[in-house]
Amino acid sequence: MANVIVVGAQWGDEGKGKVVDIYTEYANDVVRYQGGNNAGHTLVVGNEKTVLHLIPSGILHEGKRCIIGNGVVLDPKVFLEEIDRLKKKGYLKNDSQLVVDANVHIIMPYHKAIDIARESNSGARKIGTTGRGIGPTYEDKIGRRGIRFIDLLHPEIFARKVKELLPEKNLILEKLLGGQPLDEEAIINEYTAYGQMLGKYLGNASKLLNQSITEGKNILFEGAQGSLLDVDHGTYPYVTSSSTIAGGACTGTGVGPRFIDAVIGISKAYVTRVGEGPFPTELDDEMGEKLRQVGQEFGATTGRPRRTGWFDAVALREAVRTNGMTGLAITKLDVLNELETIKICTAYSYRGQLLEDFPQDLEVLKECKPVYEEIEGWNASLAEATSSETLPKKAQEYLKKLEQVSGCPVVLVSVGPRRDQTLQVKNPFA
Predict the structure, then answer these.
(1) 146 in a labelled binding site
(2) What does the entry's cofactor note say about binding and number (predicted)?
């Protein structure tokens, strides 16, 4: 038995979907524990690409149970659309394969309207939200005024809650944000219909997962976004609204920490970031554009071009520590194939000081300049590699350098988008 958490080790978009898809082969249950449809996981099986926003990446494997834990916020319209697309592709043939916890909070139309209006009114202070209503939904959850999945299945209770909440939301939209009010009856009718369609997926994630643990089954915990976007440990306020680090897997599913066996951090062989916020190794030049084009660095959810930069070991060490990582999965190593030299940031320079730790003070981080080590590239294709030992020698040296500067062993290497372009060094489920 093994229970493994997969987390993003950077600012998101690290390729978690592919790694989860690979590890699902060894798992019985795959559970998503935080975030919403502001994240997109891109999976390539054969020549077919599938983008998922809410449903765990393990859904592409027949017979694997996929669970959406209580820590997730769910847009029922997006969820139903995703189910429909999967069924049209021949997946999710058995609805019992998918479970949604009763305590999942629901993204309502006023959450999205407030999210978009706030960002449009923020000017230079915008944080780069996707406008999907994620933050306002978590606000209502913490404020104890949220609507949960179970409420959709009780029309009278749901209608009462909407009638209680909507006047305040419309006041905020109209008077504070300059938006348009929303129609109460339309919302009640639309979301009551969603409840009728989604009731068959209702379940108790904590009970099901703990039962699996008792039975000696393997569980894979799937996170969204990245560690540096964690609401507590990330580059606040340029973060998401949930706990993206490994600890969030426990609070977001109702599984105790003593049952966790491994934490695998996913990191690109370089770094990307979407939205606003400090990014010490950002390359706003020809090299940055080359990484963006070769790596196809455009958001799976929004299509936004990602900011790109050299590998940042200072940021990675922060992620290794806050997650208690036991292994690293390095993705997109092949994007660096044609480079003569590659840079790795091993420290920051701040007003004449050398910083080896990631600053908590955002104002300090904004002024940090990367201190680089430059190493020779391999300037060769990785297509023929069948194991980490068969990679070009310089590529192997690059991976060893990443292990050295992060203090965490590499357990998986991705050299292309397909399933079969993955080299496992050590299987955390073994």
Answers:
(1) no
(2) Binds 1 Mg(2+) ion per subunit.
The list of the chain residues with pLDDT below 70 reads 39-41, 46, 122-129, 300-302
Task: Kindly give, in sequence order, each residue whose CB lies less than 8 Å from that of residue 122, ignoring residues fewer than 6 positions away.
Answer: none
**Do residues 102 and 203 make contact, with C-beta atoms less than 8 angstroms apart?**
yes
Question: What is the identity of the amino acid at 103?
Answer: N
* 212 annotated as belonging to a binding site for a ligand: no
Angle at 285 between CA 279 and CA 289, to 5 degrees: 90
pLDDT at position 299: 76
**Is 248 annotated as a binding-site member?**
no
Residue 178, marked binder:
no
Catalytic residue flag (residue 41): yes
Q: Which fold has domain 3-95+204-424?
A: Adenylosuccinate Synthetase; Chain A, domain 1 (3.40.440)
In the chain, which residues fall in CATH 1.10.300.10?
105-200
Consult the annotation and say whether 288 binds a ligand.
no
Architecture of domain 105-200: Orthogonal Bundle (1.10)
From the candidates 29, 41, 53, 115, give the one annotated as an active-site residue: 41
The pTM of this model reads 0.94
Distance CA 307, CA 271 (A): 8
Among this protein's residues, is 141 annotated catalytic?
yes
Instruction: List, by residue range, all CATH 3.40.440.10 domains of the chain.
Output: 3-95+204-424
Q: Does the annotation mark 111 as catalytic?
A: no
